[in-house]
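Please study the protein below:
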Amino acid sequence: MSSDAIEEKNEKSLVRPHVVKFLLTAAGALVLLLAFAFFELQDDFWDIRSKECRRDVVSLQNDVPVYGLLQIFDKNPPKEIKAGSLGTLARLGGLWIVVLIVAFRRERRFYKMELAQSEIDDIMSIFETRSSVPGEGPAKINGFEALNRLGEYLHRYHSLEEIHQVIRKMAVVLFPLKNGAFYTYNESTNTLELAVSWGDFSGARSMMPQDCVGVVGAKMSYIRRGEEVKERCAHLPDREGEYFCVPIMGMGRLFGLFHLQRIDGSEAPVGAVPNWIAVARAFADRVGLYLANLKLQDDFAAQALRDPVTRVFNGKYLEETLTREIFAAKRRNSPVGLILVDLDYFEEIGKLFGRGAAECFLNEVARLITGSIRAEDICCRFREGEFGVLLPTASVQIVLERAEMLRQAVEQLRLAYGDNFLSTTITLSVAVYPDHCRSGEELLAEARAALAKGISRGRNCTVIAGEN
């Protein structure tokens, strides 16, 4: 049987129980809702004001109730009772659909988790190569063969959670120190945080990079049981244990820490990887390189949306978001405001004080703008000294007030740069959907036309779209 056929068979075996659970949930919810509907609508039928219908109900009470209720519908009961019953049935039907959606998403999520775990287990089974010659002793694990396949299998996964599970599985199989953990480095807090652990791990959940000798020295740290050393990691729970720490590095950056420990004094288990320290070092290098590649991909994705100088969104992102916001505003019947900001004589700052001064001033203006808008508003930089601010649900008056507030704030700005103070004024334009346009493209065009009018009038002013 081919590998594709085996994978297809495994997927079918995994999906079958989730399909059964989904169908059972749907059937159970349907039975409950039908029972509720029967007893709820039964009261409506008994309250029919038509005497003829009442006589039929009384005469049919000793007969088959469901058949009698069907006959009552033929007696043409009052319209308000029909409308109320249909409304109740519609609400119950909608509730059942919601239950189906929730149940489907839940089972799909569990299925994907089990499928990913099954794939990891299959990968780990490939890593174990066993001796086929009788009498050669217990099974051995080829560590370097596992490392050769590591990159291939890591590329199957794109979430850090799945990668952490691969690391955990490999560590349990390959290395004799069966207790361990993998820490990830958090740049914002400058801490190493526990991502995944295995065995009877006893250690810190979070620590500073300087707590680990391996991280400080950017090299492997291996302490044997009872060994006297000058420097010992501060995160170790037992000074008499055996420990192995190796930082996960990639392209000169710290991504995490791979830590193994054995504190019970037991011997290395049979079947451990020969020369496991060299394998562990190579393992950390492979994982570090892969995490570095993932980080680069994330950085490239962010650069596609962010301005490299100010780190606010770029103009392309605002244009795409503007289209979505206009559609949402049409559904909500709400306005969308847009402010364009042009730094007056911005080129002169670069000519007089250099490119560094111009970028420094841009960053300060971006910080001022983002600090003056709501969390749901979006600030972007189009080019050189031009910014845009998108304000969903903001009326013309609110957008105009916000623009004037920004104009006055920048006018008062004095930014120290060396022995000089940088300052300038700004020209702004205001356009609001649906007051000035009918689409996102028209909104941006109206704002640009108004900004050109403000520049032609002498700058340092706020112009509303459509003004003469």
Remarks:
- Residues 1-7, 48-75, 128-139, 268-272 have pLDDT under 50 and may be disordered.
- Residues 3-115 form one domain.
- The longest strand covers residues 253-262.
